[in-house]
Design brief:
By secondary structure, this protein is mainly β. It is built from no helices and twelve strands. The strands form three sheets. A four-stranded antiparallel sheet has the order 1-2-3-4, with no helix packed on it. The protein has a four-stranded antiparallel sheet with strand order 5-6-7-8, with no helix packed on it. The chain has a four-stranded antiparallel sheet with strand order 9-10-11-12, with no helix packed on it. About 35% of the residues are buried.
Length: about 170
Amino acid sequence: MRADGADRHRLPNPDAGADWPSWSPDGKLILVTSGSEPEQLWTIRPDGSAPTQLTQKGGGQGAWAPDGRRIAFASGRDGNHDAEDPADWNEEIYVMDRDGSNPTRVTRIAGNDHWPPTWSPHGTHIAFTSDGCETNSEILIADAMGSRVLNLTNHPSRDIFPSWHR
């Protein structure tokens, strides 16, 4: 819908519901998480046409890079979603090209890295929530290539849902 609430319409679900919507920087696509375990990332046009599945091995909570060329997302593709202990799910942050190609793992941290990743304004870093095995929920930042990860909060209470100031 428009910012004033006009022209409201429901988009068709690409695969069993959709959540975590994220508009592409050019406004031509909406990135959504859809499906049952494992969830997958899809794009769909604002008019509801051309739903396209981007991930095959699981992916959710996607976020467009500021230039629209890449997408950061969370995935448990290297973990065990059937495990009773959520720490064993081992969700990690990945980056892929806007068409779903070239998925690259950014984090290698025990526990779950997710909720949702968010790009720095210049597209060089990604902030995310980490529910590590030995820590409470913390906000971490990684460079987009994954070579450096820094814990920003290190606080006894839950720190979640990071956001950047533009």
